[in-house]
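DM from R.C. (forwarded with permission)

"hey, sorry to bug you on a friday — could you get me a structure for this? deadline for the figure draft is monday and I only need the backbone to look sensible"
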Amino acid sequence: MAEPALSVVETPSGKGRGDENFPVGSWLIRRDLRPHVHTFYRFAREADDVADNPALAAEDKVRRLDRMGAVLDGATGTDAPAARAMRASLAETGVTAQHCHDVLTAFRLDATKLRYRDWDDLMEYCRYSAAPVGRQLLDLHGEGRQSWPPSDALCSALQVLNHLQDCGADYRALDRVYVPEYDLTLCGARVEDLAASRASPALRATLDRLLDSTDRLIEQASYLPPAVRSLGLRRECAVIVGLARRLSRRLRRGDPLAYRVKLGGIDFAAAFLVGFLRGSA
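My reply, with the result:
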């Protein structure tokens, strides 16, 4: 007997572009490309929401993500509207569907994998969860693959920073821990420390160690803006590099278990100004 079809596979959380640490298809991007950037963001956001839905079992999450992938590839039906919109966008722009399938791979991992062994294991996850986002944007603008390595570094840095922001909430709500086990053990911390109301000295040392590695990624990412030909995208990349640096500094000073460490309006304004100028050079 065939499995019954789901009426709607996507489970929106209500989060949007305004909840992110970085601009998503801002006015810096070419006007004709912004709708396609927003469509990709919506696709990734809906898939992320499926993976993060605490009311769904792991196998149900995977089934829903598989259905999004099938609709992306041409399956009929109205149960995955974000995937249908993404398919139409790809048909219009000629960008490969591989980046979308890569992020679906990452969200299947989110549904089934709760721990990461070491930094390399985490970077392998970022290869699917983060790098495709930058590659999609670069391909949309017709940029060459020489820009992929610094873009991968920037997107991976942003991913790790987000993991550190949410490390306590992810553990308490989903039993999901992106902080690598190796780093926890090396610093004398335990996974269970993430349930506390504030970071222990050992966990603080772990976070700082991970921020050291993240800062090295951000340094690699500083080579991205000069590698981008499109003026608007070059400016946006410079802005995002600046935001990543600012968020890393805030996480060094703040305690993500005690409160959500995030950027403020002044951070965004300053990063936009500096990034705009540097990206214009």
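R.C.: lifesaver. Residues 51 and 107 are 6 Å apart (CA to CA).
me: no worries. The chain has a mean pLDDT of 93.
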